[in-house]
Amino acid sequence: MNSVLNVRYILIRMEKLLYQIEQITGQKYRQFKLYEQAVTHKSYFNEDPTAQHYEKLELLGDAVLALLVLEFLIEHFPQDSEGDLSKKRARLVNQSTLEKLAQQIGLAEFLKLGKSEIKTGGFSKASILASSLEALFAAIYLDQGISAARQVVFNWFGDFIHDATIFQLDYKTDFQEKVQARLKQTPWYQLIYQSADASLPIFEVG
After folding, report:
1. pLDDT tens for residues 122-154?
2. Taking the complete model, does pTM exceed 0.70, yes or no?
3. Which of 62, 99, 117, 143 is catalytic?
């Protein structure tokens, strides 16, 4: 597929994504360029020197997402302490969760990447998917306002909020946080024992 046809295909696919957003917000997009920028990786500059990549939008999107996810958590977990809410937000607003969400909405299908990035598997890179998704939230915020961005975030993150496993206690992280708070240093670990059963290994560290 030549570059002109490829860009045209991406734009057609983007219309489908924008329609999804429209169904959630009840608003039609006004600034298509913002959404195009949100899916454009900096490597694409090599193909089109006039292209605007997503990194500034990503920075704004990170702040918008952090705010709205915290609002969402306060609404759903009103009894949680500030510390618990902060931990929950960290487990939602991270590369792993953002990558999964980006895959669910098919974001990879309309990413604009340079040839070099395509050769290294850019369409499936977690960092690119997560960054582009954050940029997309910024595009929605700038184009349609905070209310529309809230609707999309609440809609798309709903399944993750109701996934009990995402908030399961991580004992190692919990221990490290307590040590860092009390002793102001990060603990290090030494393997003392490992069982011979490779199918269900047991480790002892000290």
Report:
1. 899 999 999 999 999 999 999 999 999 999 999
2. yes
3. 62
